[in-house]
């Protein structure tokens, strides 16, 4: 296994371990132990598009992102720049592949390469980007449902 794949595997394992810890804290022993191979993650459309690069795809691995707490992989096309938006609840993100940026509108991009972490406060307007020439893959964990509220719609 080459070093970038090893790093990717370690990062993915850390993300899943973190999400499992969050679930365990929220409801100890409420769920059985689970293993989800990457080949079994089913990605589906989110309806979130930037008008030129494509659509975000979501691959939930625990919980239900539309209804409550969840851990979900997000695929973002290369060059994707989200419209300014916010979410009702806060979430935590980890970059699994690609180089991302997540920040308030108009701020300079802080490059987030593989292994980077960000926290997004609920209700705060922001823009999320895939800065790399290939798709970005993130793992997000949230204590509530995931929503996407375009700027000015709240």
Outline the fold blueprint:
Layout: H1 3-26, E1 44-49, E2 55-63, E3 70-76, E4 85-86, E5 91-97, E6 100-103, E7 117-120, E8 127-130, E9 136-142, E10 149-150
Antiparallel strand pairs: 1-2, 2-3, 3-9, 4-10, 5-7, 5-9, 6-8
Describe this structure in words.
- It is a single chain.
- With 154 residues, this protein is α+β, with helices and mostly antiparallel strands.
- The protein has one domain: Sandwich (Jelly Rolls), CATH 2.60.120.
- Helix content is 16%, strand content 34%.
- The strands form three sheets. The chain has a six-stranded antiparallel sheet, with helices on one face. Strands 4-10 form a two-stranded antiparallel ribbon. The protein has a two-stranded antiparallel sheet with strand order 6-8.
- A hairpin with a 6-residue loop joins strand 2 and strand 3.
- The longest helix is centred in the N-terminal third of the chain and has 24 residues, at 3-26.
- The chain is globular.
- The termini are far apart.
- Mean pLDDT is 85; it is low at 1-25.
Annotated CATH homologous superfamily: Jelly Rolls
> Which parts are unreliable, with pLDDT below 50 for 5 consecutive residues or more?
1-25
Estimate the mean pLDDT confidence.
85
Tell me the distance between the termini: 47 Å
| Structural class category | alpha+beta
**Strand order within the widest beta sheet:** 1-2-3-9-5-7
**Biggest sheet features:** 6 strands, antiparallel
CATH topology: Jelly Rolls
Strand content: 25-35%
Helix content: 10-25%
CATH class: Mainly Beta
**CA-atom Rg in angstroms:** 15 Å
> How many DSSP-defined strands?
10
Total tally of structural domains: 1
CATH architecture grouping: Sandwich
List the helices and strands in order.
HEEEEEEEEEE
Number of helices: 1
Which of globular, elongated, flat, extended, rod-shaped describes the shape?
globular
């Amino acid at each position: 296994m080459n070093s970038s794949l090893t790093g990717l595997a370690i990062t993915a394992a850390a993300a899943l371990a973190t999400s499992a810890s969050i679930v365990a804290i929220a409801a100890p022993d409420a769920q059985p132990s689970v293993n989800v191979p990457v080949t079994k993650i089913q990605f589906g459309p989110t309806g979130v598009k930037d008008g030129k690069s494509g659509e975000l795809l979501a691959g939930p691995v625990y919980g239900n992102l539309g209804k409550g707490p969840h851990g979900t992989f997000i695929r973002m096309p290369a060059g994707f720049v989200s419209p300014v938006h916010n979410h009702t609840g806060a979430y935590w993100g980890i970059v699994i592949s690609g180089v991302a940026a997540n920040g308030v509108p108009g701020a300079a991009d802080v490059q987030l390469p593989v292994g980077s972490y960000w926290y997004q406060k609920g209700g705060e307007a922001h823009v999320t980007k895939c800065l790399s020439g290939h798709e970005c893959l993130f793992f997000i964990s949230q204590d509530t449902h995931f929503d996407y509220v375009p700027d000015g719609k709240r």
